[in-house]
Structure formats: structure tokens, C-alpha cells
Specification:
By secondary structure, this protein is α+β, with helices and mostly antiparallel strands. It has a domain at about 25-105: RRM (RNA recognition motif) domain (Alpha-Beta Plaits). It is built from three helices and six strands. A four-stranded antiparallel β-sheet has the order 2-3-1-6. A two-stranded antiparallel ribbon has the order 4-5. β2 and β3 (about 70-80) form a beta hairpin.
Length: about 130
């Protein structure tokens, strides 16, 4: 749960800019869909074409591995309205695309993860960590 404390605007009828930003972010999340179970051969164009059955697709992104450049088998589609997003979930969740069954649901905000472990353990790069024998 996110709690933000902010000063009340001078005119009590106005919203704080922070509140407006939060509202816009929450509206955007309702339109963003998680799509799982993608084939490694599915392209962003295929994803966009498939979801256009439910309405206007703003973006379609397939997540790829940084090292190999290969699809991780999931992606995100952003629809132009909440109604279209709901329609896409209804139409496409459990349907087949490129030989795989899709999982389509509302995207959730990414959870905070602990920092990645640093694999550099020192030792001066000598391989086995031992010093000079002689």
C-alpha cells in the first residue's frame, strides 16, 4: 500500500499534483494487461493484431532476455480504455495464439525487489583466490 502525505492546495477544491499523478497512474494500470504463455515466435505485431479484436491497442510489448535477446514468453498490452481492456481479457484469456494458451489479466505494478548480488568477490582476478606460492 502506498501512502503519500502532501500539503493541501490553497484552494481546497483543487487536488494536489501528486494526487493527480497517482490517479493517472492507477487509471493507466487498469488499461495495461499482462499476457502470459506467449510462444517464443510470437511478435509484437502479432500481439497487437490479436488484441485489436477487443479495441484500440496503444502499445504491445514482448519482454525479452537481455543476454540472449529471446522472448521470455510474456508481455504487456496497453488498451485505450478500461472497457476495451476488460473486453480483451474476456475474449482472449484461455485462447490459443501460435500454438500456446494465453493468460490475460490486468497488469499489477512491479514489486520492489532486493538489490542484485554482486558476484565480484575480490581476490584480484587470479582465478582461485589463492596468492602466489613462491
Amino acid at each position: 500500500m502506498l501512502i503519500i502525505k502532501c500539503k493541501r492546495p490553497k484552494n481546497s477544491n483543487e487536488r494536489s499534483p501528486y494526487i493527480n499523478k497517482l490517479i493517472s497512474l492507477s487509471n493507466k494500470m487498469a488499461k495495461k494487461l499482462y499476457v502470459g504463455g506467449l510462444s517464443y515466435s510470437t511478435t509484437e505485431d502479432t500481439l497487437k493484431d490479436t488484441f485489436s479484436q477487443a479495441g484500440t491497442v496503444e502499445t504491445a510489448t514482448i519482454i525479452v532476455d537481455k543476454m540472449s535477446g529471446r522472448s521470455k514468453g510474456f508481455g504487456f498490452v496497453e488498451m485505450s480504455s478500461e472497457e476495451e481492456a476488460a473486453k480483451a481479457i474476456e475474449l482472449l484469456n484461455g485462447k490459443e495464439l501460435d500454438g500456446r494458451t494465453l493468460t490475460v489479466n490486468e497488469a499489477r505494478p512491479m514489486e520492489a525487489r532486493p538489490p542484485r548480488r554482486d558476484f565480484n568477490r575480490g581476490g584480484g582476478g587470479r582465478g582461485f583466490g589463492g596468492g602466489s606460492r613462491w
